[in-house]
Here is the input.
Amino acid sequence: MKIGDIDFGARPLFLAPMEDVTDIGFRRLCKRFGASMVYTEFVSAEALVRSVKSTVQKLAISDDERPVGIQIYGRDVQAMVEAARMVEAAHPDVIDLNFGCPVKKVAGKGAGAGMLRNIPLMLDITRSVVRAVKTPVTVKTRLGWDQHELVIVELAEMLQDCGVQALTIHGRTRSQMYTGEADWTKIHEVKHNPRIKIPIIGNGDITTGAQAAAAFDHFGVDAVMVGRATFGCPWVFQEMRAAVDRCSDVGRLTVDEKIDLLLEQLHINMERIDEKRGILHTRRHLAATPVFKGIPDFRQTRIEMLRAETAAELTAIIEAARARLHELSLDTAT
Here is the structure.
């Protein structure tokens, strides 16, 4: 599979762009464990053109995470064009347009998935951005606004005609948010439309290697994008890669290795930003990681992790949890 001049090889796995999740530390770890492409947190075009510091900082990427995409969202043509040019100056491999975010503060204002209610504007933005930059432009969107407006088959053709070089489809409507099950049959329909020549990337409910392999086998997508299953679990790409490649030697990590990776992520984030915000960026992964699930009554310890304000305090809590896991392992062994 290729986007522009980037050759991802067969059956690539992509890390979905996610707000407060895909910071640079996490992206680098996901890349290490087999993610073929990673994306930054999504970037507000309006905030970027106003040079809001926290938004501009999201453009920071490093060579060891390439290929990397930067995703932008907005509802104004000129703001999206100007933002795309600013993003291009950061030298990402791909500029992705977010027409799929369902949250109220985005979609409710007409951006993200809100664009599914204004297809002409979506197409105008897409054409304008494609013309404004040389970097490959891609789009991420949903099946439609709701079950009565499943527009994705026709929309995919229109976006292709605008010049996008790949399309990611989340198999839900905006109305579904993240509830119910993703419908991959519509993604399959788009992929097997003889008019579609661009790569189609499937997204939604991929949590295991078996599901990732099935997405390729049964629905024929060119790539699979993984989202929530990666929270606090960057090594999931290694397990998925083994299943997709039908490799029996997964090389599973030990608990100690996984905890070391979470600490590494913390340190990367602190070095790239600062101690306070580095901790904030890592908290969501600590809250979601499956590493500590074997500890009885872990809820209070998790709360302590989320309240820690210094690296020393947070590290001490994590190390205490590690020691507890070791104790439990010894108890089980005896």
Observations:
- The CA atoms of residues 269 and 278 lie 4 Å apart.
- The mean pLDDT is 93.
- Residues 311-333 form the longest helix (23 residues).
- The two ends are 50 Å apart (CA to CA).
